[in-house]
Amino acid sequence: MLIDLAGKSALVTGSTQGIGAAIAVGLARAGARVAVNGRTRESVDAALERMRGELPRAHFLAAPGDIAADEGAERVWAAVPHVDILVNNLGIFGTRPALEIDDAEWRRYFEVNVLTAVRMIRAYLPGMRERGWGRIQNIASDSAVVTPAEMIQYGVSKTALLAVSRGFAKEAAGSGVTVNSVLAGPTHTGGVEDFVYELVDPSLPWAQAQREFMRLHRPQSLIQRLIEPEEIAHMVVYLSSTFASATTGGAVRVDGGYVDAILP
């Protein structure tokens, strides 16, 4: 399947590293003009240097700004006035015993993991509808369906993101714009390596630590390993294409079979 996104513009939030960076590279490799977002200009410039080194002929541009704050979101909108493809990837996670999660932390997770996506959709969906084409994807998680006991604040925020996707898909009905969630399973990123070592013996070599983490904490995984960020990006690139024109309002799984259900 040859996916050609030439002539399309994309914005990936939280794309200086990890899954977001892999998505930005994947979209650029398919020919899209990709705006890379991070909280600071320095982090964005460093990411752009790496990405341009990997894809010297690709078209990347900088869109720095903390979209969890009004001023930062406005900076991004000024840098990228309209897009054809919006990927809401920005998110935070961390372990905390359930009874120790205070109101401030609950609000922080909702602000970053849910409201940033709402804010960006509200900014870009009207233009997509006017042009009669667009793709919006919200990067959710298996934790949206299988709430993790060690970080229920994260799981609840990702559950809310599924409803955001479904609701805005209805708002975009019949317009040529699709809105979907991507349920990413346990994925190998720098942040997840730190998370793994919070739960298993930190003296273990990484390969052994990963196996121990999957055995003890994610035994439902059918691939029995962490997913690589590029594997999430492959699904995002497909959903961004014309081939996915009949897929909207869905929660599409790239979870390694982790969610033990026929449907999400």
Structural features, described:
Helices cover 45% and strands 14% of the residues. It folds into two domains: 9-187 and 227-254, Rossmann fold, CATH 3.40.50; 188-226, no CATH class. The protein has helices at residues 18-29, 41-54, 70-79, 103-131, 152-171, 190-199, 206-217, 229-239; strands at residues 9-12, 33-36, 59-62, 85-88, 134-141, 177-184, 251-254. It is of the alpha/beta class and 264 residues long. The radius of gyration is 18 Å and the shape is globular. Helix 1 (18-29) crosses helix 8 and helix 4 (103-131) packs parallel to helix 5 (152-171).
SSE order: EHEHEHEHEHEHHHE
Distance between the termini: 26 Å
**On the 0-100 scale, what is the average pLDDT?**
96
Number of strands: 7
Q: How many H/I helical runs?
A: 8
Give the overall silhouette: globular
Poorly predicted runs are none
CATH topology of the largest domain: Rossmann fold
The helix fraction, in percent, is: 40-55%
The assigned structural class equals alpha/beta
- The CATH class label of the largest domain is Alpha Beta
Looking at this structure, what is the CATH superfamily of the largest domain?
NAD(P)-binding Rossmann-like Domain
Main β-sheet, spatial strand arrangement: 3-2-1-4-5-6-7
Fold blueprint:
Layout: E1 9-12, H1 18-29, E2 33-36, H2 41-54, E3 59-62, H3 70-79, E4 85-88, H4 103-131, E5 134-141, H5 152-171, E6 177-184, H6 190-199, H7 206-217, H8 229-239, E7 251-254
Parallel strand pairs: 1-2, 1-4, 2-3, 4-5, 5-6, 6-7
